[in-house]
Amino acid sequence: MAAEIDDVAxxxxxxxxxxxxxxxxxxxxxxxxxxLAEGLRLGHFRIEKxxxxxxxxxxxxxxxxxxxxxxxxxxLPEASVSGIARDRLIREARAQARIQHPNVxxxxxxxxxxxxxxxxxxxxxxxxxxERASRGPMSIEEALATIRAAALGLREAHRAGFxxxxxxxxxxxxxxxxxxxxxxxxxxxxxxxxxxxxxxVEQTSLGGTPLYMAPEQARGDxxxxxxxxxxxxxxxxxxxxxxxxxxxxxxxxLASLHATAARPVLPRKGHPRTAIAAIDPLIARMMAADPAxxxxxxxxxxxxxxxVSTQHTRPAGAWVxxxxxxxxxxxxxxxxxxxxxxxxxxxxxGDMIFAITFAYCTFTLARWGTTAGKALLELxxxxxxxxxxxxxxxxxxxxxxxxxxxxxxxxVDQHLASTPLKIATVIIVAAPVLAMFHAAWRVPxxxxxWDRIAGTQVRYRSSHRQDAAxxx
Length: 472
Known about the structure:
This protein has helices spanning about 85-100, 130-135, 140-160, 215-220, 225-240, 250-260, 275-285, 300-310, 320-340, 350-370, 370-375, 390-415, 420-440, 450-455, and strands at about 1-5, 40, 45-55, 55-65, 70-75, 105-115, 115-120, 125-130, 160-165, 170-175, 180, 190, 205-210, 380-385, 455-460. It is an alpha+beta fold. The protein has 3 domains: about 20-120, Phosphorylase Kinase, domain 1, CATH 3.30.200; about 125-310, Transferase(Phosphotransferase) domain 1 (Transferase(Phosphotransferase), domain 1, Orthogonal Bundle); about 320-470, no CATH class. The strands form 5 sheets. Strands 2-3-4-5-7-6 form a 6-stranded antiparallel sheet, covered by helices on one side. It has a 3-stranded antiparallel sheet with strand order 8-10-11. The protein is elongated, with a radius of gyration of 28 Å.
């Protein structure tokens, strides 16, 4: 198995659009090459200036003379026109060319001129995440949005049958329009056939960057999309904390830490406590040492990223939920009062009102994902596992966990009135309100106890939904 360990394994650096370090970085590699002169023609491309160089190629700014547009040209050094380097460049170009997605850098052309193998790709004027991270930690929302976009690009690569194998901050770039692009498919591992494969892919070479590499990839075992998800989790940790999750003096030491060490807890560094509490378990799952404990698909990962992001999911706070619950409680009471007027009025006990409210909320949540009170305040209830409205069973469990104790204590209080029971009634009735305030201040996603029991969440409705991105 050939080794293709990245030359920035132990020193994190930035890259330009072509996936190579900029000039002056000290990481230009050992392969000698002659710099292309300005004005030189490679096919229908004219070289303008050199942008960067690395061990696997040089990147130039060029003009596409056929379409009169600027492009980036990646050129293989003359000394590497045969063998592994040539195969890698061709593999990189073909892989990227097959992936048509806004979050993947586009390849325009591959060719050979005067013994030089090259390919042309879109020119990305922006910064890599390595450059952005070098200035300090990102906000959690910015980091989540960035990783979400990268996950969508990697999902498209997986659909085309590819595993990237080198996900890291310097291979993710934000262009001038703020769009995140996945770069450098030079280490891509492809399924054995043209058909999309969800199974593991055997590694024909050991490649990647140990700072972000999944344990199974470092061992040379078969890999799949979960290896890229691990590297994406390590990248997310770096963006939020300002440093990689593990550092060591040797590649072997890094591989050992990724395989056996407990991942460091995210430092707060000014981030809200509830936001850190929400994102830390997410990263822990992405970076689980056992691939079976990670997200099994990019759709599942994107849903979880949306749940912890206030850009996509804005959890409802205590005040608005209390008002919505009060409206829901009053609706059955008012309707029953209106219906009973012709019959001289019906005196219903508190336990009956709570029971009717329980039934009404259960069925409306299962049918529409909201209630009258929540709809008036633009709220909805979702099942966390699917981000859709809860099933009847899940809605039943949720409402039972919230109203069950109240119905029980009010029923007992009516039949066995005593001071201790009256005190207990007040405490039980007030408990949901107190639980919602506690959740709003301390619990990730502002999920109350009954929401955590039922696996649900109350959030504001949003026109910013991107559920269409999750469709096959």
